[in-house]
Amino acid sequence: MVGVGLTVATDWLWLDPVVAIAVAANIMREGVHLMWRSSEGLMDRALEPEVLAQVERTLAEFTHPTIRFDHVSSRRSGQRRFVDLHMHMPGDWTLGRAAAVRGSVEQALMSAVPGLRATIQLLPSDVEPHSGDEEDLI
Asked: What is the distance between the terminal CA atoms of the chain, rounded to a whole angstrom?
Protein backbone atom coordinates (compact mmCIF):
# COMPACT_ATOMS: atom_id res chain seq x y z
CA MET A 1 0.00 0.00 0.00
CA VAL A 2 2.87 2.36 0.80
CA GLY A 3 4.43 1.72 -2.63
CA VAL A 4 1.18 2.36 -4.48
CA GLY A 5 0.52 5.50 -2.40
CA LEU A 6 4.01 6.88 -3.03
CA THR A 7 3.74 6.10 -6.76
CA VAL A 8 0.41 7.95 -7.03
CA ALA A 9 1.71 10.89 -4.98
CA THR A 10 5.00 11.27 -6.85
CA ASP A 11 4.24 9.81 -10.31
CA TRP A 12 7.44 7.77 -10.02
CA LEU A 13 6.40 4.41 -11.46
CA TRP A 14 9.59 2.67 -10.36
CA LEU A 15 8.87 3.39 -6.66
CA ASP A 16 6.18 0.70 -6.25
CA PRO A 17 8.42 -2.23 -7.32
CA VAL A 18 11.31 -0.91 -5.17
CA VAL A 19 9.08 -0.80 -2.09
CA ALA A 20 7.72 -4.27 -2.96
CA ILE A 21 11.27 -5.66 -3.21
CA ALA A 22 12.17 -4.09 0.15
CA VAL A 23 9.08 -5.60 1.77
CA ALA A 24 9.87 -9.02 0.24
CA ALA A 25 13.46 -8.81 1.46
CA ASN A 26 12.23 -8.00 4.98
CA ILE A 27 9.81 -10.96 4.89
CA MET A 28 12.65 -13.26 3.77
CA ARG A 29 14.97 -11.95 6.51
CA GLU A 30 12.32 -12.45 9.20
CA GLY A 31 11.49 -15.93 7.84
CA VAL A 32 15.13 -17.01 7.96
CA HIS A 33 15.49 -15.57 11.46
CA LEU A 34 12.35 -17.40 12.63
CA MET A 35 13.52 -20.72 11.14
CA TRP A 36 16.96 -20.29 12.74
CA ARG A 37 15.49 -19.62 16.19
CA SER A 38 13.13 -22.59 15.84
CA SER A 39 15.91 -24.97 14.87
CA GLU A 40 18.12 -23.72 17.71
CA GLY A 41 15.48 -24.86 20.19
CA LEU A 42 15.76 -28.39 18.83
CA MET A 43 19.54 -28.65 18.99
CA ASP A 44 21.54 -29.60 22.07
CA ARG A 45 24.25 -27.21 23.15
CA ALA A 46 26.92 -27.16 25.82
CA LEU A 47 26.04 -25.37 29.03
CA GLU A 48 26.84 -21.70 29.33
CA PRO A 49 30.39 -20.95 30.63
CA GLU A 50 29.07 -19.41 33.86
CA VAL A 51 26.93 -22.49 34.54
CA LEU A 52 29.89 -24.79 33.87
CA ALA A 53 31.97 -22.68 36.24
CA GLN A 54 29.29 -23.12 38.92
CA VAL A 55 29.33 -26.89 38.33
CA GLU A 56 33.13 -26.93 38.70
CA ARG A 57 32.96 -24.88 41.92
CA THR A 58 30.37 -27.25 43.35
CA LEU A 59 32.45 -30.31 42.45
CA ALA A 60 35.52 -28.66 44.01
CA GLU A 61 33.68 -28.62 47.35
CA PHE A 62 33.60 -32.44 47.28
CA THR A 63 37.08 -33.04 45.89
CA HIS A 64 39.18 -34.92 48.41
CA PRO A 65 42.38 -36.97 48.15
CA THR A 66 40.18 -40.06 47.95
CA ILE A 67 37.50 -38.59 45.65
CA ARG A 68 37.98 -37.12 42.18
CA PHE A 69 35.78 -36.21 39.24
CA ASP A 70 36.47 -36.52 35.53
CA HIS A 71 34.79 -36.96 32.14
CA VAL A 72 32.44 -34.05 32.86
CA SER A 73 30.15 -33.46 29.90
CA SER A 74 27.20 -31.14 29.69
CA ARG A 75 24.39 -30.27 27.37
CA ARG A 76 21.39 -28.06 27.20
CA SER A 77 18.27 -29.19 25.44
CA GLY A 78 15.62 -26.51 25.30
CA GLN A 79 15.21 -25.23 28.86
CA ARG A 80 16.68 -28.35 30.48
CA ARG A 81 20.31 -28.66 31.55
CA PHE A 82 22.21 -31.90 31.95
CA VAL A 83 25.62 -32.81 33.32
CA ASP A 84 27.20 -36.29 33.24
CA LEU A 85 30.42 -37.18 35.04
CA HIS A 86 32.47 -39.91 36.64
CA MET A 87 33.12 -39.90 40.37
CA HIS A 88 36.12 -41.95 41.48
CA MET A 89 36.22 -43.06 45.09
CA PRO A 90 38.02 -45.74 47.13
CA GLY A 91 37.15 -49.27 46.04
CA ASP A 92 36.88 -50.48 49.62
CA TRP A 93 33.95 -48.17 50.41
CA THR A 94 30.58 -49.82 50.86
CA LEU A 95 27.96 -49.27 48.20
CA GLY A 96 25.81 -47.42 50.72
CA ARG A 97 28.58 -44.98 51.62
CA ALA A 98 29.43 -44.34 47.96
CA ALA A 99 25.77 -43.83 47.06
CA ALA A 100 25.31 -41.40 49.94
CA VAL A 101 28.24 -39.26 48.77
CA ARG A 102 26.99 -39.40 45.18
CA GLY A 103 23.54 -38.31 46.37
CA SER A 104 25.07 -35.37 48.23
CA VAL A 105 27.00 -34.31 45.12
CA GLU A 106 23.91 -34.60 42.90
CA GLN A 107 21.84 -32.58 45.38
CA ALA A 108 24.52 -29.89 45.65
CA LEU A 109 24.76 -29.62 41.85
CA MET A 110 20.99 -29.37 41.43
CA SER A 111 20.80 -26.75 44.21
CA ALA A 112 23.64 -24.70 42.69
CA VAL A 113 22.15 -24.78 39.18
CA PRO A 114 18.34 -24.74 39.15
CA GLY A 115 16.85 -27.14 36.61
CA LEU A 116 20.05 -29.17 36.28
CA ARG A 117 19.82 -32.96 35.96
CA ALA A 118 23.00 -34.64 37.15
CA THR A 119 24.05 -38.18 36.26
CA ILE A 120 27.06 -39.49 38.17
CA GLN A 121 28.72 -42.81 37.44
CA LEU A 122 30.57 -44.26 40.42
CA LEU A 123 33.96 -45.83 39.77
CA PRO A 124 36.67 -47.18 42.07
CA SER A 125 39.74 -44.94 42.20
CA ASP A 126 41.95 -47.52 40.52
CA VAL A 127 39.66 -48.02 37.49
CA GLU A 128 39.61 -45.87 34.38
CA PRO A 129 36.56 -46.19 32.12
CA HIS A 130 36.94 -47.65 28.66
CA SER A 131 36.55 -44.95 26.03
CA GLY A 132 35.94 -47.28 23.08
CA ASP A 133 39.24 -46.54 21.32
CA GLU A 134 41.13 -49.56 20.01
CA GLU A 135 44.32 -48.10 21.49
CA ASP A 136 42.83 -48.62 24.97
CA LEU A 137 42.55 -52.37 24.35
CA ILE A 138 46.31 -52.82 24.00
From this structure: 74
Q: What does each of the 138 residues of the chain score in pLDDT, given as a tens digit?
A: 777 777 778 877 777 788 888 889 999 999 999 988 877 767 777 888 999 999 999 999 998 888 999 999 988 877 788 999 999 999 899 999 999 999 999 999 999 998 899 999 999 987 666 666 555 444
131: which residues sit within 8 A by CB, 6+ positions away? none
DSSP state of 64: B
| Cα–Cα distance, 99 to 118 (Å, whole number) | 14
Q: pTM for the whole thing?
A: 0.62
CATH topology for 45-126 is Alpha-Beta Plaits (3.30.70)
Domain limits of the chain? 2-42, 45-126
Distance CA 106, CA 123 (A): 15
